[in-house]
């Protein structure tokens, strides 16, 4: 067991969460991060879906990496990812229908998420299944953290709620005689881009010396 | 076995073929296993939308199936004429299969009063929109509505799913005076013109194109069922 949780593996797991975060540092997977973060719940489900898919596609590719013909390796990776995405999308439709309606096309678009192909090509093709699994989980979680942060701010300011629970009391609203108005901009993808930039800015300012 | 030549043509082709076959079987299996649950979810969602038009708020926790069976008494399908009628099965008609010769219709009962629910589809700004309009048994007064959309702008066009907008239709009249054209409209604030307040609701600020889409959908949708409604009118 010592080898499973060695220092190197710990590094494999930790770095995508912070110093090598796929969104904040590598700026990958932005498209879906903008689209599904208007509320917290879809953001979390999307984050988990990507985590599961990255982890398992990493493991599968890592297991068969020595048999994959070099010339069609990208196609093989794509087929594995596409199969997993289809399975996850089917499971979502069967067990969390509301969320799958909200995520609509974006689950399918996980296939084109650059994080996935990036990890497969850069990590799983060269490392063992266990390391690849850790790498997949960590990259997925690194992605999910950013989605949750952006989703939290957007839902709070855009809808006045968290997880659909009203946080800002109705009596504050302009319509009811208060002085508060939900920021409709927050519900648009453009605002997610600005928020995301703020997250990246904060992250880089804090880790100034550590990121190459 | 020695070192496999993974770069040969034959190997590559066989590898690709086997991979595709395995994946195809796997996906077919998953689709088979989960299919019935997914279908049940979709049906449930559709039922809760029809119930929403009848005033049962969507999203609240209740037994959709039971409530639907209790309230919706019949779901006939009408053909091109009122006479061509199948007594039930309207629920199974998907929105995309609705046409002038294939018109599903719902007869419901709320507190002992008959209500008719007309399904309709149309186009919003970015994608499809659809809805259900419930009418009183005079086939004239709107009892309730439900609208939804594929991909309207969140916070603007997507607000057609909000209760205040749907509720603003309550009590409005479908026709103006004795005219046979559908008069019920969605109009921009300040552009009401000569339309009687009984016949319009205000559109959504910042979402004029989606509002226009709802307006067209209602006119087309109710227009398509005019003969059936005429026939049922009390």
- Sheet with the most strands: spatial strand order of chain A: 1-2
Per DSSP, the total helix count of chain A is 9
For this structure, the quaternary state is heterodimer
Report strand order across the widest sheet of chain B: 1-5-6-7-8
Mean pLDDT of chain B: 87
Strand content of chain A: under 5%
Low-pLDDT segments, ≥5 res of chain B = none
- Could you give a short account of the major beta sheet of chain B? 5 strands, antiparallel
Helix content of chain A: 55-70%
Largest sheet of chain A: 2 strands, antiparallel
Please outline the helices and strands:
The complex is a heterodimer of chains A (212) and B (234).
Chain A: H1 7-14, H2 30-35, H3 40-63, H4 73-95, H5 97-103, H6 105-108, H7 114-124, H8 129-159, E1 161-162, E2 165-166, H9 189-206
Antiparallel strand pairs in A: 1-2
Chain B: H1 9-53, H2 64-71, E1 72-74, E2 77-78, E3 85-86, E4 103-104, E5 106-110, E6 113-123, E7 128-135, E8 142-149, H3 163-167, E9 185-187, E10 200-202, H4 208-224, H5 226-232
Parallel strand pairs in B: 9-10
Antiparallel strand pairs in B: 1-5, 2-3, 2-4, 5-6, 6-7, 7-8
Explain what you see:
The complex is a heterodimer of chains A (212) and B (234). Chain A has 212 residues and is mainly α. Chain A has a domain at 22-152. Chain A contains nine helices and two strands; from the N terminus they run H-H-H-H-H-H-H-H-E-E-H. Chain A has a two-stranded antiparallel ribbon with strand order 1-2. In chain A, strand 1 (161-162) and strand 2 form a beta hairpin. Chain A is globular, with a radius of gyration of 19 Å. Chain B is an alpha+beta fold and 234 residues long. Chain B has a domain at 74-232. Chain B is built from five helices and ten strands; from the N terminus they run H-H-E-E-E-E-E-E-E-E-H-E-E-H-H. Chain B has helices spanning 9-53, 64-71, 163-167, 208-224, 226-232; strands spanning 72-74, 77-78, 85-86, 103-104, 106-110, 113-123, 128-135, 142-149, 185-187, 200-202. Chain B has a five-stranded antiparallel sheet with strand order 1-5-6-7-8. A three-stranded antiparallel sheet of chain B has the order 3-2-4, with no helix packed on it. A two-stranded parallel ribbon of chain B has the order 9-10. In chain B, helix 1 (9-53) packs across helix 2. The relative contact order of chain B is 0.11. The model of chain B has no long low-confidence stretch (mean pLDDT 87). Chains A and B meet through helix 4 of A and helix 1 of B.
